[in-house]
Design a protein that fits this description.
Blueprint lengths: L1 H4 L4 H10 L5 H13 L2 H5 L11 H4 L1 H15 L8 H16 L13 H10 L19 H16 L6 E2 L7 E2 L18
Antiparallel strand pairs: 1-2
Length: 192
C-alpha cells in the first residue's frame, strides 16, 4: 500500500516484495484490504507459523485466569464503566502481589493498555457504543415525575388498608385499621 501510494507500479511492488522475501503483491494486497476494511478477527486469525516467542501469560497463567475472571465480573455489572485501563491496573496489582515486589512511582505498567485491549479482543470482547443513556435523578420529563408522584400518593393515601412492616432495626408487622384489608405484594431486589 505504501509503495502504491508513492506511484510505484504493481509489477515493481511485486518484484520488490519477492526480492525482500516478503509476501507476493497479490497476498499483500489481500491482507491490506482486510486490514483497511476493519475485519480485525480475520486479520488476526491468520496465525501462520505459530508462536515464535513466549508471551506474558505463558509465564503467569494465574494472572491470565484472574484477569479473565475480573473482566467477566466487571462486564456483568449493570454499570457500563469497565475499560481496558481497569484491566491494566488489575494485572499490574496482581503481578506485584505474585512477584512479592513493591511498585515504585516511576515504574511503568506491566502490561500496556493496548496489550490489554488485544487480550480482551482475543477473549471475544466486542467494543460497542453504549446506547443506553444513564439515568440521573432530577433529569426526568415532567410527565414521568407527575405520574410517579400520583402512583406513590395513591398508596400513601390508602396506607391504613395495608399490612405493613415497620422500617426499624427490628421490623414489626402493622395491621390494617380500615376495611377491607389489602395485601400488597411486590418483588424487591437488594444489592450491596
Amino acid at each position: 500500500m505504501s509503495l502504491k501510494r508513492f506511484g510505484v507500479s504493481w509489477n515493481d511492488c511485486n518484484g520488490f516484495l519477492r526480492d525482500s522475501g516478503s509476501l507476493k503483491a497479490r497476498t499483500a494486497h489481500k491482507w491490506s484490504e482486510i486490514f483497511v476494511s476493519g475485519d480485525f478477527d480475520e486479520f488476526q486469525g491468520e496465525n501462520r507459523g505459530g508462536k515464535h516467542n513466549a508471551e506474558f501469560y505463558d509465564y503467569f497463567p494465574e494472572i491470565e485466569n484472574d484477569a479473565k475472571q475480573f473482566t467477566l465480573e466487571r462486564c456483568s455489572q449493570k454499570s457500563a464503566d469497565f475499560t481496558a485501563v481497569d484491566l491494566t491496573n488489575f494485572i499490574d496489582v496482581k503481578y506485584y502481589e505474585m512477584a512479592n515486589l513493591t511498585k515504585n512511582a516511576d515504574d511503568v505498567l506491566i502490561r500496556s493498555v493496548s496489550s490489554c485491549r488485544l487480550d480482551l479482543r482475543r477473549c471475544g470482547a466486542r467494543f460497542k457504543d453504549n446506547t443506553q443513556r444513564p439515568y440521573f435523578e432530577g433529569h426526568e420529563r415532567s410527565d414521568v415525575v407527575e405520574h410517579r408522584q400520583q402512583f406513590i400518593n395513591h398508596f400513601l393515601d390508602r396506607k391504613d388498608y395495608y399490612y405493613r412492616v415497620s422500617n426499624d432495626n427490628k421490623p414489626v408487622w402493622t395491621l390494617p385499621t380500615q376495611n377491607p384489608p389489602c395485601i400488597l405484594l411486590c418483588k424487591c431486589f437488594l444489592r450491596n
